[in-house]
Amino acid sequence: MSIKRNILASYVSQTYVTIIGIVIVPLYVKYMGAEAYGLVGFFAMLQAWFNLLDMGLTPTISRETARHRGGATDAFSYRRLVHALEGIFLFIALLGGGVLFALSGVIATDWLQASQLPFVEVQTALQLMAIIVAMRWLCGLYRAVISGAERLVWLGGFNTLVATMRFVGVLLVLVFVGITPTIFFSFQFAVAILELLGLLFHAYQLLPSIPRNQRQHFSLDWTPLKPVLKFSLTIAFTSSIWVLVTQTDKLLLSKLLPLAEYGHFTLAVLAASGVMIISSPISGAIMPRMAMLEAEGDHAGLIRIYRQATQLSVIVASAASLTLVFCAEPLLLAWTGDKALAHQAMPVLILYALGNGILAISAFPYYLQYAKGDLRLHLIGNAWFVLLLIPAIVWAVSQYGAVGAGYVWLAMNIIYFVTWVPLVHHKFEPGLNVRWFLQDVLVICSIVALTGYGLIAVWPVTDNRWYQAVVVVAMGLCLLFSGALASSVVRTKLVAWNHLRKVNRVGLV
Predict the structure, then answer these.
(1) pLDDT tens digits along 44-62
(2) Which of 184, 361, 205, 370 is nearest to 287 (CA)?
(3) What is the Cα–Cα distance from 410 to 324, expressed in whole angstroms?
(4) What is the 3-state secondary structure (H, E, C) of 266-294?
(5) pTM, whole model, 2 decimals?
(6) Is the pLDDT of residue 449 over 90?
């Protein structure tokens, strides 16, 4: 399967999901109100915290699927592993969802600071959230099988369909049926059922068949987990740290801020998360391929894909994050139409956008360790990261609120990038880091930043909402184009394409 096609399909799908999610949010706020939208933000945070129960199993099955395709495991062992993981996922989904369901009353009264929504409405919404979160988390197993099999074109199309129902479909329900949180989350529950059934059916189509003479010995047990247990538990720890790193500020602010203000904070963080969202399709496409190349012993091919993907990710992440930095207030004004909200949320958006841009780049050494199957350094680095981050976040949020959390987020990502990333590269590929940093990262980021500074200095400022939208889009495209021209990978592709075009023209003559 073409990795270019997979990346393109993932980008098209992820871009659509991102854009539709962002465009629809102001309409949610308009119809539901800021306080009810605060519940939506709390729901998104719950989904992230639920990943603590993953235990590293989702990335493990994706990697083992890729390894099976590379010939590292046989069909019988792979099928047993999938079925063992199914049992674990189902048990944890029931346990985790049940606990959230049981605690809905306590969360509604003692945690969330709702002043307008009735208690019964908030509790019912929380109960529906518990069920939906458990179902969507269960979807992760089957999505990992499909991703590991590199069926990203189908997965992208399916994700697009689900996102359309989740965002556009529910908006129609809010307009024509009712605008209560109960109605909103009831519809999301129905979509979650369809999502789970679709992923389950396609994942089972991809599983290898078992020879007839082996089927009588096929049974469900957890023995197949033993060979991958160390790798899985390492990912589990680092995944837990990732949740702590990215969600602690949101958890604390959901307690400290009134629900309406928390909804506004969620808007800024959602806009900044676009940096990570549009960068993730690259990692989703290269991780299974890198794992397969490692299984095949093609080290040169692995490093080549690693560096090429780094440049692509830097182009996208730097263009996206710096567009948000240079156009933070115009973007929020164009998005929400609320000048006061745009001015208030601007600092949070700038800080989180910069932090997310650095994070998208510094995540690459993890992909290298993932392919090698050795996450020891990743575990140690993230452990130190969270040990420093959590106390700093707690103090900053209590003293300075959302802006304090933003400053801590940016500072910690800078520290991680300049200290730990070089250490990981030295361990797994000595001599790579300087070339990787200078050629694959710094050149592109510098050109993009200089382009942004030049453009923002000459473009006039106005309060017109639609003009602001045009400015943001134009800025993003210009920065993306400048980053592409700064990339040696893109320039090489353009030269090769131009040469091929000339050859074809001569052939026609």
Answers:
(1) 777 777 766 655 566 677 7
(2) 370
(3) 14
(4) HHHHHHHHHHHHHHHHHHHHHHHHHHHHH
(5) 0.69
(6) yes
